[in-house]
Amino acid sequence: MPSRECRRWRLIPFLEESGKIQMAIDAWLLEQYRLGLCGPVLRFYSWSPPAISLGYHQHKWPNFWENLTWQGGKLQLVRRPTGGRAVLHQGDLTYAVITSNLGVKRLESYEFICRFLIEGWRKLGIELSYGMAGRGYIHNPNCFGTATSADLVLADGSKLIGSAQLRRDGAILQHGSIRLKPDVELFAQVFGEAEKANLDINFDTKDVMDALIQAAAECFGGEFVVENLSDEEWQVILETSSKYSVNLSGYDHAEENNAASIKKQQYLP
Predict the structure, then answer these.
(1) So what's the pLDDT on residue 132?
(2) Contact at 8 Å (CB) between 147 and 132?
(3) For this structure, is 219 an active site residue?
(4) Angle made by CA atoms 56, 60, 65, in degrees to the nearest 5
(5) CB 97 within 8 A of CB 161
(6) What pLDDT does 194 receive?
């Protein structure tokens, strides 16, 4: 795989797509990096329609999650290739970083990658720090119900960013949800509890991405080159995306994949 000394990063333009396709993209890029077929990657994306993502090893969740709706549409249930607990993806921005050679300790690799998140939000005037939750967090199915040492919180302890990793032969995929404009009523409907966080974040999504991209270049070093997914990459991604769906019987995957194949990638205007 490319070494940490590789100074060319692939910056994939913002993409709004379904959760299963987003997870297939992240997994595909990790595998390509592991095989030495591409350099490190940074990308940002959102989930359309909104979805609940489950950690790879999360096998229990409320049955009613499979039939939730919001604004007339059904929430999708998606399985991430990474660990952790359930995340509601509505009003959030997701980041993904793929790189390697960050040491054997997982916490050290989290801290190395999370530096660009901390510095990027500092450029926007927001100070972040790491969470402090112990192992008891595993009993809470809601990722944003607690904040571990791999998560980033605001000054009042409110969790702004929850992250998870997948490692393959030294290659690392770390992706995470950045809460920008969550719907408090939908959160309560999903998790059966009121939103605890006091989030007063009022930034344009593009401004957030621009600050984080600038911080990534400073923290990781090297040149960040914008590069869309190729037609060949899209073909493989769409062929593998269905395995990230959970209990979506009767859903027309073929129709969704066809729509995704013709959707253009672009930064938010």
Answers:
(1) 74
(2) yes
(3) no
(4) 100
(5) no
(6) 63
pLDDT value of residue 171: 94
**What pLDDT, on the 0 to 100 scale, is given for residue 144?**
47
pLDDT at 113: 94
CA distance 216 to 222: 9
Short-list 58, 48, 59, 42, CA closest to 21: 48
Low-confidence ranges of the chain (pLDDT < 70): 1-6, 103-104, 133-149, 194-200, 247-269
Dig out the tokens for 181 from the structure: 């404009």
Tokens standing for 74? 């059904």
> What one-character-per-residue DSSP string does the chain give?
---TT--EEEEEEEEEE-HHHHHHHHHHHHHHHHTTSS--EEEEEEESS-EEEE-TT-----GGGGG-EETTEEPEEEE-SS-S-BEEESSEEEEEEEEE---S-HHHHHHHHHHHHHHHHHHTT---EE----GGGGG-SBGGGS--TTSEE-TTS-EEEEEEEEEETTEEEEEEEEESS--HHHHHHHHSS-----------HHHHHHHHHHHHHHHH-SEEEE-PPPHHHHHHHHHHGGGGB-S-TT--HHHHHHHHHTPPP----
Question: How would you classify the pairing of strands 129-130 and 51-54?
Answer: unpaired
pTM listed for this prediction? 0.85
Tell me which of 6, 38, 114, 143 is the catalytic residue: 143
In what side-by-side order are the strands of the sheet with 76-79?
76-79, 51-54, 87-89
What's residue 192's pLDDT? Answer: 81
